Amino acid sequence: MGGDGELAHPCPICGRPAIGRAWQYNTICDECYSKPVCRAGRRVDGHNTSLGGGFEAAHLDDESVCDQVTRDGTVWIDGVECHMGEAKFGGVFVGIAPRE
Ligand SMILES: [Zn+2]
Predict the structure, then answer these.
(1) How far is ligand 1, taken at its centre, from the CA of residue 59, in Å?
(2) Which of 14, 56, 85, 89 is most buried, by the most CB atoms less than 10 A from its CB?
(3) Ligand 1 centre from 66 Cα, in Å?
(4) Is a pLDDT exceeding 50 seen at residue 1?
(5) Is the pLDDT of residue 100 over 70?
(6) How far is the CA of 87 from the centre of ligand 1 (A)?
(7) Cβ partners under 8 Å of residue 78, min gap 6
(8) How far is the CA of 14 from the centre of ligand 1 (A)?
(9) DSSP 8-state symbol, 33
(10) How far is residue 92 from each of residues 9, 61, 87, 100, measured CA to CA in Å?
(11) Residue 2 — pLDDT band, cuts 50, 70, 90?
């Protein structure tokens, strides 16, 4: 822990304070973290496939693996396209690439 991970920034979805940054993405807040859906509109949640990392997304309704999100990491929150993936030091993040 440490580094730039402690700084809060506005959640790119709702503007509430959000903590952390992953790769180039602005991560979303805890509130929005419970909302991502896959292309099919089903709630998905990401997890590491092993202690060493790896990433896989699963549908919350029947716990089946979501191939689409596992493959491309694209999820939607309130209709906004976001990216879900493996964080730098394990764990899973959801964020939005900064708009230039
Ligand atoms: Zn939010």
Answers:
(1) 21
(2) 85
(3) 23
(4) no
(5) no
(6) 18
(7) 13, 14, 32, 35
(8) 4
(9) H
(10) 18, 19, 5, 24
(11) very low
CA of 73 to the centre of ligand 1 (A): 18
Tokens 């590491």 -> residue: 48
Q: Quick one: tokens of 100?
A: 């230039």
- Cα(68) to centroid(ligand 1), Å: 23
Select from 14, 42, 43 the least CA-distant residue to 29: 14
Cα–Cα distance, 31 to 65 (Å, whole number): 23
CA of 20 to the centre of ligand 1 (A): 13
For residue 10, how far is its CA from the centre of ligand 1 (angstroms)? Answer: 8
